[in-house]
Amino acid sequence: MLKQGPAKKVCIYVSEDRQYHGHAVYAAILDFLFYRGVSGATVIRGMAGFGADHHLHTTRILRLTEDLPIKIEFIEAAEKVEALLPKLFEMVGTGLIDVQDTEIIKPTGPSKVQPQPQPDRPLKIEGKAKLMRIYIGEQDRWKDKPLHRALIESLRANDIAGVTIYEGIAGYGANRRLRKEKALGFSKDRPIMLSVVDSEEKIRAYLPILDDMIGAGLVVLSDVDIIKYTHDYKKVERRKEPR
């Protein structure tokens, strides 16, 4: 949570149609900031503008959806901004990042309507790695969304190489409560397992974020050998970038 006093204001300028790992770069940046615990961020869609290439982007006449300028803005403590900048540099690409000194006069507080307690790029890997399995329930939630969906978004935002989600038909955990698939496929709380494989360094760096998101659940780590992982996402995404 932001505190009163000196801080940094960060403004990021990108094009609306620029992609990052198959998603709009402004949406990917927003996810990254959200899952890195940034206190708040705003995305603003411009009506007109131009960048370093001097190509004019505008909503005039029939060009209502033509690659308009997007601004992402957030305020955070200087040390947190410093930690976020290397990844933001990578994500922004040819965009612009502006960092300004600012002062927080009145920090925002948590919402009083629904107060809730807050419980480097995917790489080609060959050789030794870690397999992380996360066991939760279908009805477990984090903030305003299903926990398993939030975990997938969080893992992606934190550059974990990949995750697969499995839906169980029966199981129980530490509370000894049986979760199972009911007749006709209607279930109230089936077991869910997420399987994640990446380097030990990246998995362990993600564990503090995982601790904040999971209340009741089980997380286990195993040593694995990667035999083959050959998806060249860099080449694919370079082909997708607008020219």
Numbering strands along the chain, what is their spatial order in the largest sheet? 4-7-1-8
Helix content: 10-25%
Radius of gyration: 21 Å
Individual helix count: 5
How would you describe this structure to a colleague?
The protein is an alpha+beta fold and 243 residues long. It has two domains: 5-104, Alpha-Beta Plaits (2-Layer Sandwich); 127-226, Alpha-Beta Plaits, CATH 3.30.70.120. It is built from five helices and 16 strands. The chain has helices at residues 25-35, 78-92, 147-157, 200-213, 233-240; strands spanning 5-15, 19-20, 23-24, 41-45, 48-50, 56-58, 69-76, 96-104, 127-137, 141-142, 145-146, 163-167, 170-172, 178-180, 191-198, 218-226. The strands form six sheets. The protein has a four-stranded antiparallel sheet, covered by helices on one side. A four-stranded antiparallel sheet has the order 12-15-9-16. The longest helix has 15 residues, at 78-92. The chain is globular and about 50 Å long. The mean pLDDT is 78.
